UniProtKB/TrEMBL annotation:
<dbReference type="Pfam" id="PF13439">
    <property type="entry name" value="Glyco_transf_4"/>
</dbReference>
<feature type="region of interest" description="Disordered">
    <location>
        <begin position="382"/>
        <end position="422"/>
    </location>
</feature>
<feature type="domain" description="Glycosyltransferase subfamily 4-like N-terminal">
    <location>
        <begin position="18"/>
        <end position="174"/>
    </location>
</feature>
<protein>
    <recommendedName>
        <fullName>D-inositol 3-phosphate glycosyltransferase</fullName>
    </recommendedName>
</protein>
<dbReference type="InterPro" id="IPR028098">
    <property type="entry name" value="Glyco_trans_4-like_N"/>
</dbReference>
<dbReference type="Pfam" id="PF00534">
    <property type="entry name" value="Glycos_transf_1"/>
</dbReference>
<keyword id="KW-0328">Glycosyltransferase</keyword>
<feature type="domain" description="Glycosyl transferase family 1">
    <location>
        <begin position="185"/>
        <end position="311"/>
    </location>
</feature>
<feature type="compositionally biased region" description="Low complexity">
    <location>
        <begin position="382"/>
        <end position="396"/>
    </location>
</feature>
<dbReference type="GO" id="GO:0016740">
    <property type="term" value="F:transferase activity"/>
</dbReference>
<dbReference type="InterPro" id="IPR001296">
    <property type="entry name" value="Glyco_trans_1"/>
</dbReference>
<keyword id="KW-0808">Transferase</keyword>
Length: 422
C-alpha cells in the first residue's frame, strides 16, 4: 500500500478576538492530526494567545480594513513560501481574500467554513446584494464550502452555491468540560457574589443588538429575587448596564465580560464558561438569528434547561434529541412567564441529552478530515490525503494538540511573515 504524504494546512481567519468561530477554530485544531498554522488578517486577540499556548503558530497579517488591497500580495507570498497544501478560510473577509490568495499562490486545495450566515445578516451585519455577489464569486475559487448546520447549508444553496460543493460539519464541544459539579457551583456562586440559594438565569454571547440581551435583562428585572449572569462583551455592554439601572435591577444583573469557554483563567481566579454554567439554574438564548447556537449545546451539556428563540443545532433535529430545550417566541412577556415557571419549580439538573454526543468535537474533526480528503483528492496531481501517513502515531504537542509525521515548526517568525509575530 502506497504511503500517503502528510499535509500542511493554513487556517486564515478575519480576527482572533473572542467569538464563536474563533473559539471553534482553537478547539478544532486540538483534534487535527496534521501541522496547522493560523494567520489572522486583523486583531490577534485573546484566542491568538490561547492558540499559541496550545503550540499553534499564529501570524498577524496586519490588514487595515476591508479595502486594504495591499494585503492580498502579502497573503499570496506567505502561502507560497509556507508550502501549504491546503488553505482553510473562516469568516467573510478571510474567505474573500483567502480563497483568491490561495488560488494565486498555487495551493493544492482551498476549503472555507461558513460560520455565521443568517437570513438577513452575515456575522451580525446586514446582507446586501454586493456582499452576496462578492461571496459567490470568491466561493467558486475554492474546492468546498463547509456549513456549520443544515440551516446554513440550505441558505448557501438558496444563494446559488451548488449542493455538491456544500458539506455540513457541525460545530462541536468537549462535553467533559461542562459536566456538572456541585462543588464548582457553590464556589462559583461565592466568587461572583451570588446568594447561595438565588435563582440564577444565564446567557453567553457577544453583546450586540442581534443577540437581544436587552430582552433578557428586562425579563430578569421583572422577577424579584432572580439574578442574571451574562458572559460576553461588545458595544451593547454600556447600554445594558444603563437599562439594568433604569429598571432598578443593577444589583441583580451581572455583566461579566469575556470569559474563556474552555475553563477558568490560568490563575484560577476568574471562572470560565463551564464554571459559570454550573452556577446557573436556566439558560436563555434570545437571539432571533443563529447559524448554529453553540452556547445552547454547552448549556445542555451542563445539564441546564434551556429557553431559546432560535438554535439550528437543536431546531434541525427531532425534539427527542434535546428534551431540556424549549423554543419560545420573541416577546418579553413570554420569556418572563417561562422563567417564572422554572423559578417556581425550583432548580433541577438534567442528564446531558443525546444532542451533546452528536456534537462532540472529535466527531466534527473527523467529518472535516473527510472534506479535506475530498478536496485534496480532486486537486490536480493529487498524491496524498489529509490524514497523514497511515499507521503513524500522533505525536502529542503542547496543550494536547496532535502532529503527524515531522515535528511542528518553531512558533517563532518564519520566512516572509507579514508584519506579524509567530
Amino acid at each position: 500500500m502506497k504511503a500517503l504524504q502528510p499535509v500542511k494546512a493554513l487556517h486564515i481567519i478575519t480576527g482572533l478576538g473572542v467569538g464563536g468561530a474563533e473559539q471553534q477554530l482553537r478547539l478544532l485544531l486540538r483534534h487535527m492530526p496534521m501541522q496547522c498554522d493560523v494567520l489572522t488578517l486583523t486583531n490577534p486577540g485573546p484566542v491568538a494567545e490561547g492558540l499559541r499556548a496550545d503550540g499553534v503558530r499564529v501570524v498577524h497579517l496586519g490588514m487595515r480594513g476591508n479595502r486594504d488591497l495591499g494585503a492580498l500580495p502579502r497573503l499570496v507570498k506567505f502561502i507560497r513560501r509556507g508550502g501549504y497544501d491546503l488553505v482553510h478560510t473562516h469568516l467573510y473577509r478571510a474567505c474573500v481574500y483567502g480563497r483568491l490568495a490561495a488560488r494565486l499562490a498555487g495551493a493544492r486545495a482551498t476549503v472555507a467554513t461558513e460560520h455565521s450566515l443568517g437570513e438577513g445578516e452575515i456575522e451580525g451585519r446586514p446582507l446586501s446584494g454586493g456582499v452576496r455577489r462578492l461571496y459567490l464569486a470568491s466561493e467558486r475559487l475554492g474546492a468546498a464550502t463547509v456549513a456549520v448546520s443544515d440551516t446554513v447549508a440550505a441558505r448557501l444553496e438558496g444563494w446559488g452555491v451548488p449542493a455538491a460543493r456544500v458539506h455540513v460539519v457541525p460545530n462541536g464541544i468537549e462535553a467533559v468540560r461542562f459536566r456538572f459539579d456541585e462543588g464548582v457551583r457553590r464556589a462559583t456562586r461565592a466568587r461572583t457574589g451570588l446568594p447561595e440559594r438565588a435563582f440564577v438565569v444565564g446567557g453567553v454571547g457577544r453583546l450586540v443588538p442581534g443577540k437581544r440581551f436587552d430582552v433578557l435583562v428586562r425579563a430578569v428585572a421583572a422577577l424579584p429575587g432572580a439574578h442574571l449572569l451574562l458572559a460576553g462583551d461588545g458595544p451593547e455592554r454600556a447600554g445594558l448596564r444603563r437599562l439594568a439601572a433604569e429598571l432598578g435591577a443593577q444589583s441583580r444583573i451581572h455583566l461579566l465580560g469575556e470569559r474563556d469557554p474552555l475553563g477558568d483563567s490560568a490563575d484560577g481566579r476568574t471562572p470560565g464558561i463551564p464554571a459559570l454554567l454550573a452556577a446557573m439554574d436556566v439558560f436563555v438564548s434570545p437571539s432571533r438569528e443563529e447559524a448554529f447556537g453553540l452556547a445552547v449545546v454547552e448549556a445542555l451539556a451542563a445539564g441546564l434547561p434551556v429557553l431559546h428563540v432560535t438554535c439550528p443545532a437543536i431546531d434541525d433535529l427531532p425534539a427527542a434529541q434535546a428534551p431540556g430545550a424549549r423554543r419560545i417566541g420573541t416577546g418579553t412577556e413570554e420569556l418572563v412567564a417561562a422563567l417564572r415557571g422554572h423559578m417556581e419549580a425550583g432548580a433541577r439538573r438534567l442528564p446531558p441529552p443525546p444532542v451533546v454526543r452528536r456534537y462532540d468535537i472529535a466527531r466534527s474533526a473527523r467529518q472535516l478530515l473527510d472534506v479535506y480528503d475530498l478536496a485534496l483528492a480532486a486537486a490536480p496531481g493529487a498524491t496524498g490525503a489529509a490524514r497523514g501517513r497511515p499507521g503513524a502515531d500522533p505525536v502529542p504537542g503542547a496543550g494536547g494538540a496532535a502532529v503527524v509525521g515531522a515535528p511542528r515548526e518553531p512558533a517563532g517568525p518564519g520566512p516572509a511573515e507579514p508584519t506579524g509575530t509567530g
